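look at this record:
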Amino acid sequence: MPTPSVTIRSLGYSDLPQVIAIERRAFPTPWSLAMFVLELSKPSGVCLAAIEERRIVGYLICSRYADVWHLMNIAVDPPARRQGIATALLERMIDRAGEDASYTLEVRPSNTQAISLYERFGFRSAGTRRRYYQDTGEDALIMWRTADTASTPSASG
C-alpha cells in the first residue's frame, strides 16, 4: 500500500509539466503534451494524480470507448516505485469507473512487473498486437479485465 502521505486526486491541466517530466523518465517513447491535453479534454475519462508532499509521483489516464474502459497510460516516477502507488491509482480508477466494468490495456511483454500488477487486479492476457511499440518493434500484450475476472489485490492476497 502507498505511504500515508500519498493521496489520489483528479489530474488537471496545471499538473502536466510534472506529468511530462515523469513521463520522460518512465518511458523510452513518452507521450507528447498534446496527447495528455487530448485525454484530459474527454469528459468521460478517468485521469488521476498520485500526490506526495505536494508533488506528483504518479498518474493514470483511462478513457471510455462505448462500454469499455481503456487504460491508456499509468506511470510512477522511478524513485517512487514499489511503494503501492500504481496499486492505489488502479484501485481509484476501478472505484470511479465501476467494479463490474470491462477494461482493456496494452503492455510490453517485457514489462513483467506491470503484468503482475494487472493480473492482481484480474486482467488476463487476450492476445497480442504485432509490432505495437514503434521504438523497438516489440509486440504488445493485450489484457482484459471483465466482471468475470475482476479482483483486487486485497481479495487475491
Remarks:
- The chain has one domain: 6-156.
- The longest helix spans residues 85-97.
